[in-house]
Please model this.
Amino acid sequence: MDKRVVLVTGANGGIGQAICKHFRTEDWFVIGLDITISEESRLLMDNYYIVDLTNSFEIQNTMLKIQKEYGRLDCIVNNAALQICKPIWEMTEYEWDKVMNCNVKAVFLLVKYGLEMLKAVKGNIINIGSVHSMASSDKIAAYACSKSAIVGLTRNLAIELGKFGIRVNCVSPGAINTSMLMDGLKRNTDVPFEEVLDRFKGKHILGEIGEPEEIASMVYYICNSSKFMTGGNVFVDGGVLSRLSTE
Model:
């Protein structure tokens, strides 16, 4: 494989699609992972694997396939996320574990089984965190906890893998125009959706929510241009964390 290879998890979602498209535009060989793949997503990738990231065996098997078929891996973008919105007392142990396995344990396993390929090229790992690692909301404890764990894991991976020349960073989006966000805004409200969306935009310093390509651009910049950055966590949030909630 002559091209640089990037592996993007959650490739079927809004941010995942944007990341795949951006890397492919820059002439990378793009491999997508998701539990489902749409026809639209397939057109943005050179290859894809349907993988349940809560299943350790499937992750290991997929990484072995990538090693055998391509023999290199320059970057892993850990973008996949599962969000279950319930009060903590209503969440089952199975649901809690499923969120943690998808959002955190999968990162550990993908790095573990992709490490030799990353070492060979002094590659990159970029984890997608969230503003929920710093300031959070009601009924989202498992998701927020998992994103906080990812930020911490990013720092530790940077320390441990720096000796191999591998950089590890995190990008933490705020409100991005994806189906996950829109579904969340539609929950538990009798107010018309457009009114809810306008109010939500108004909570941001810039008066808008972000687009998936803005996250993709930051991911690519960190991977390709920011050679001295490791262990970092960059917030792309429209300034929402900069203003006190009491203002």
Summary: The mean pLDDT is 93.
